[in-house]
């Protein structure tokens, strides 16, 4: 039987060293025993593979009518979203026959030459924009970028696709950050995999010497973190 997208993505995360175990302080201030580092996709093969995973998720969502097919541009917030938007647009065109642009923002406004805040396909009123980002914990990154998009043009954000949903509660509710963003902005938020799918898939994998890849202690630490912060 073919493995699920989440299972194949977990294998890719592990072989790319993008999933780390240890003690990590998150942007939200939480201390996490695991961290997903999109910066690990640092060569042509890995970034092309990553783009193909995003495109596969998007194409599934189009089939399920969660995301419309006539997306005008894929938007990735600077900096980590930039290679995501570009590689996703390439894969959507090459593998799924979709003609889409890519757009990203500058961290500082450029006041000469082509100027402005945006690079890539210019945003225009009425355009359908699909956001891509790496990981969502509290949803801070996406909340920062939406006003910047809206200030540029009256675009319609049709969805947000992530690599990983960490499935964490927001500070002031039991709702997951993903659900809170969906409720606040009214567009779907999808992830190639969520942390529970990743741990379930990793638990079935073995090292070359036959020992379990995810030892009991690591699994326990992840579980107790999710008991405290998981939605
Ligand atoms: P929020 O903006 O709070 O949702 O946190 C997500 C951001 O934190 C990501 O875009 C990353 O910059 C960073 N992050 C990771 O990259 N991987 C993780 O596993 C956790 C975080 C994090 O700090 O929460």
Strand element count:
8
Structural class: alpha/beta
Strand content: 15-25%
Low-confidence stretches: none
* Total discrete domains: 1
Corresponding CATH architecture: 3-Layer(aba) Sandwich
Distinctive features:
binds orotidine-5'-monophosphate; alpha/beta; 7 helices; Rossmann fold; 25% strand; transferase; orotate phosphoribosyltransferase activity; glycosyltransferase; magnesium; 6-stranded mixed β-sheet; 231 residues; two-stranded antiparallel ribbon
Describe the 3D structure:
It is a single chain. The chain is α/β, with parallel strands linked by helices and 231 residues long. It has a single domain, classed as Rossmann fold, CATH 3.40.50. The chain is 40% helix and 25% strand. It has 7 helices and 8 strands. The chain has helices at residues 5-15, 44-63, 81-96, 140-152, 177-185, 195-203, 216-229, and strands spanning 19-25, 31-36, 73-76, 101-110, 116-120, 128-136, 156-165, 189-194. The strands form 2 sheets. The protein has a 6-stranded mixed beta sheet, with helices on both faces. The protein has a two-stranded antiparallel ribbon with strand order 1-2. A hairpin with a 5-residue loop joins strand 4 (101-110) and strand 5 (116-120). Helix 1 (5-15) packs across helix 6 (195-203). The longest helix is centred in the first third of the chain and has 20 residues, at 44-63. The chain starts with a helix and ends with a helix. Orotidine-5'-monophosphate (OMP) binds next to strand 2, strand 6 and helix 4.
């Amino acid at each position: 039987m073919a493995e699920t997208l989440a299972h194949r993505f977990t294998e890719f995360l592990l072989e790319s060293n993008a999933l780390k175990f240890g003690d990590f302080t998150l942007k939200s201030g939480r201390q996490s025993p695991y961290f997903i580092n999109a910066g690990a996709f640092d060569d042509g093969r890995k970034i092309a593979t990553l783009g193909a995973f995003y495109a596969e998720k998007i194409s599934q969502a189009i089939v399920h009518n969660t995301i419309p097919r006539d997306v005008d541009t894929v938007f990735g917030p600077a900096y980590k979203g930039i290679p995501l938007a570009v590689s996703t647009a390439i894969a959507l065109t090459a593998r799924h026959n979709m003609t889409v642009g890519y757009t990203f923002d500058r961290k500082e406004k450029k006041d000469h030459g082509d100027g402005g805040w945006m690079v890539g396909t210019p945003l225009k009123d009425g355009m359908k924009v699909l956001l891509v980002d790496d990981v969502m914990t509290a949803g801070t990154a996406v909340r920062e970028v939406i006003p910047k998009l809206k200030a540029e043009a009256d675009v319609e954000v049709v969805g947000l696709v992530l690599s990983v949903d960490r499935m964490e509660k927001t500070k002031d509710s039991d709702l997951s950050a993903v659900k809170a963003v969906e409720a606040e902005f009214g567009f779907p938020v999808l992830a190639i995999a969520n942390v529970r799918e990743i741990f379930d898939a990793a638990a079935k994998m073995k090292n070359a010497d036959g020992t379990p890849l995810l030892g009991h202690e690591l699994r326990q630490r992840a579980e107790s973190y999710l008991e405290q912060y998981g939605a």
